[in-house]
Design a protein that fits this description.
This protein is α/β, with parallel strands linked by helices. It contains 19 helices and eleven strands.
């Protein structure tokens, strides 16, 4: 198969191609609502998949899920799609499905996606919680104390427990770490409660996502298309943007350098991209620009999808080499500025008035400019975009359930794991302290000093953690067998991970916290 992707046919008869070797140089799909951005996104996603390139994309409106199913000649839009295929000379056009894995932060429409509080880091959490600089500084102190005491911050309950502990000891901590006020701690706690009420707490915990599960192919060599159900997530736009930024940074941190591959290792579509840059402090925008600029050397192509191209900051837009511009409407002065800005980003075509064409494009048409083999942008052309071969529209609940059940990740992420972490350790310490104080009062300090320690040793807790995790993983596998569904869970690996976590919790030191800190937290500290 030709690795380059056929985007459509230009008005002058030239085929517009997205070159696979240049696809990791990122891209932009822009245009007003209803002009065809989603169809273009679907075309690109299934084309990458057919060439063995895994894809991640967010399904904001619920209509991208149909990419898992083949289109149909009886569908309402079939006549238009088949007519467009004839118009651009697609003689081999036929409907086809794609290998899809459904994900959902809330675990309702796909496999849950989780990360730990430590992996998210204080900087992204500060943005997610809407903290000011002073409150963010207190949160940073909380993370540092957890690192030094070897307390794992896995879920929001762990963070709440740490905040309560820091608030109770604010006076003594201030002399060592700087001003820690109970007021700032209280504000952070209230913001965490608000995040919990929005369902954001389900994003934090274990088992945490293994990024390698996004970069896989099926038994036919097609790249898996990872579709995130984001219709509910969009009600919390800051959580949506923070999650995708974390995911992008995690990809950057996890993947090896590959230079310029013949085709991408992964293509990442960021729908509603304007949310990423809403109310972003300059330091975070610097980090986003750095990640976008450098991640292409990891073989990852990032494609931003937005209504208005001026929503993307200039220094980031300058990194986007492949562009598909659907129609814009000049109703307001801002719309007129967007049209002018979009026209100026294209390589000039002397036979085309780009600014005028942007307002005249029909549904399914776009202005296209992609990178040539030498890295230069092609001359912009007015192009009729090729139709996708999969279904346009949503899937039914029954179809979704079948796809989720047949997923290669079935049983791996579906059941949460709650191993010993900061909440449990702090609760045990508080209980031990209360019991010890009572014993000193009744038995005397000397007698209490001679007894064995109340808490079990580190290695005993590690053994118990391993046994419990292995049993839980084995139970998941057994349940999968009963339902006729294979599980990828590995009891021995899960046990080893749990034991290691217990050891890390007991050993303490900054090592445990730094081990799980991701790229963005590190760059912004």
């Amino acid at each position: 198969m030709d690795q380059d992707i056929f985007l459509g046919l230009a008005g002058n008869g030239e085929k517009q191609m997205l070159r696979a070797a240049q696809a990791n140089r990122h891209g932009l799909i822009a245009g007003a609502t209803g002009t065809g951005k989603t169809v273009t996104l679907q075309l690109l996603a299934e084309s990458f998949s057919a060439r063995g390139v895994p894809v991640f994309m967010a399904d904001v409106k619920g209509d991208l899920a149909g990419i898992a199913m083949p289109g149909s000649s009886t569908a309402p839009n079939a006549g238009k799609l088949e007519g467009r295929a004839r118009d651009i000379g697609l003689t081999d056009y036929a409907y086809a499905d794609n290998p899809v894995v459904f994900w959902d932060l809330y675990g309702e429409q796909g496999h849950p996606i989780r990360t730990t509080v430590s992996e998210m880091g204080p900087q992204l959490l500060s943005r997610l919680l809407g903290l000011n600089e002073t409150q963010g500084g207190v949160l940073d102190i909380v993370f540092r104390i957890a690192d030094e005491q070897g307390l794992l911050l896995l879920d929001l309950a762990d963070l709440q427990a740490m905040l309560a502990n820091v608030g109770e000891n604010a006076g003594t901590l201030t002399t060592r770490y700087g001003n820690v006020t109970k007021q700032s701690v209280g504000i952070i706690q209230r913001q965490l409660l608000s995040l919990d009420a929005q369902g954001g707490a389900q994003f934090f915990g274990e088992p945490a996502l293994e990024i390698a599960d996004f970069i896989r192919s099926d038994d036919q060599g097609r790249g898996l298309i990872n579709v995130l159900a984001a219709d509910r997530l969009m009600r919390s736009p800051k959580l949506y943007a923070t999650f995708l930024l974390w995911l992008l940074a995690d990809l950057f941190e996890s993947l090896p350098e590959v230079g310029d591959p013949e085709k991408p290792k992964l293509v990442f579509f960021f729908d509603e991209a304007h949310l990423l840059f809403a109310d972003v402090p300059p330091a975070l925008e610097d980090t986003i620009e750095q990640v976008v600029r450098l991640i292409r050397s990891k073989g990852v192509g990032v494609y931003f999808i937005t209504q208005n191209p001026i929503d993307i900051p200039e220094r980031i837009a300058g990194q986007l080499g492949n562009r598909v511009q659907h129609a814009l409407r000049a109703f307001t002065p801002r719309d007129q500025r967007a049209i002018k800005a979009a026209a100026e980003t294209f390589r000039i075509n002397p036979d085309l008035d780009v600014a005028q064409a942007i307002t005249e494009l029909k549904v399914g048409e776009a202005l296209v400019s992609t990178l040539l083999p030498d890295g230069a942008p092609s001359v912009v052309q007015r192009t009729l975009i090729a139709p996708p071969r999969s279904r346009l529209g949503p899937v039914s609940p029954a179809e979704r359930a079948i796809i989720v059940g047949a997923s290669p990740h079935a049983g791996k992420y579906d059941n949460p794991v709650n191993r010993e972490s900061a909440e449990e350790v702090l609760a045990r310490k508080a209980a031990d302290a209360a019991a010890t104080a009572q014993q000193v009062e009744t038995q005397g300090r000397e007698a209490v000093g001679q007894r064995e320690r109340m808490s079990t040793s580190l290695w005993t807790r590690a053994g118990k953690a391993a046994m419990g995790a292995a049993a839980g993983s084995a139970a998941s596998m057994a349940a999968g067998a009963i339902m006729g569904r294979k599980s990828r869970a590995n009891p021995m690996r899960t046990a080893a991970s749990a034991a290691a976590g217990a050891v890390a919790t007991g050993l303490g030191g900054a090592l445990a916290g730094r081990f799980v800190r991701n790229l963005i937290g590190g760059l912004m500290r």
